[in-house]
Amino acid sequence: MTAKPEQQFNEIQKKSLEAAVQLAQLSIENTQRVIEVQVAVAKSLFEDSVNNAKALSGIRNPQEAVQLRTRFAQNSAEKVFAGAREITEIATKAQAQISKLVGEQITSNSTEILGTIQQMFQGLPIADEGTISAIQNTLNTTRTAVDRLTRASSEAFQAFSQAKVSATTGKSRAVK
């Protein structure tokens, strides 16, 4: 009877390792996306800077120079805010993916662990039905608590992510 629970625990560990690898891949992919956005914004700002410098070198009127610099500053700010929004969207999607993965892992592992523990207790020679009933009730209560905790944390995380995107989007619109 001991080999089967050990195999089950090994299987749970294997699934946890696979989830950790997925988590690392998600992290790397999203970091790469953020870096790509940052590089694109930096490149665009540099090109605009060069063009602005060339345009300024040909201007003789100070008012035109001020207007050109103002437009350049506005365009630069818009590009920076657009990049920030894009990075926020990437981060929000990554958080949602990670939250989903972790939530699924917690739910799956807790259910499998509780099931394995339940099997172990069923194999024991316990004569008292009250003891078996108490163990079963404890396992069921634990399973329900884990399910509720997982659901509540997922909902809270989603609400936090949505509030974060709304706040970022609202701030950037106010600046434009």
Provide the fold topology.
Layout lengths: L2 H55 L4 H62 L5 H47 L1
What is the N-to-C order of secondary-structure elements (H for helix, E for strand)? Answer: HHH
What would you call the shape?
A: rod-shaped
Query: What helical percentage do the residues reach?
Result: over 70%
Rg (C-alpha, Å): 28 Å
The number of E-state strands comes to 0
Secondary structure class reads: mainly alpha
Average pLDDT, rounded to a whole number, is: 79
Q: Sheet bearing the most strands, described?
A: none
The proportion of strand residues reads: under 5%
Count, helices: 3
Distance between the termini: 68 Å
Which regions have little confidence, pLDDT < 50, spanning 5+ residues?
172-176
| Count of structural domains | 1
How would you describe this protein?
The protein has 176 residues and is mostly helical. It contains three helices and no strands. It has helices spanning 3-57, 62-123, 129-175. It starts with a helix and ends with a helix. 0% of the residues are buried.
Features:
mainly alpha, disordered C terminus, 176 residues, single chain, 3 helices
Précis, in short:
Helices cover 93% and strands 0% of the residues. It is mainly α and 176 residues long.
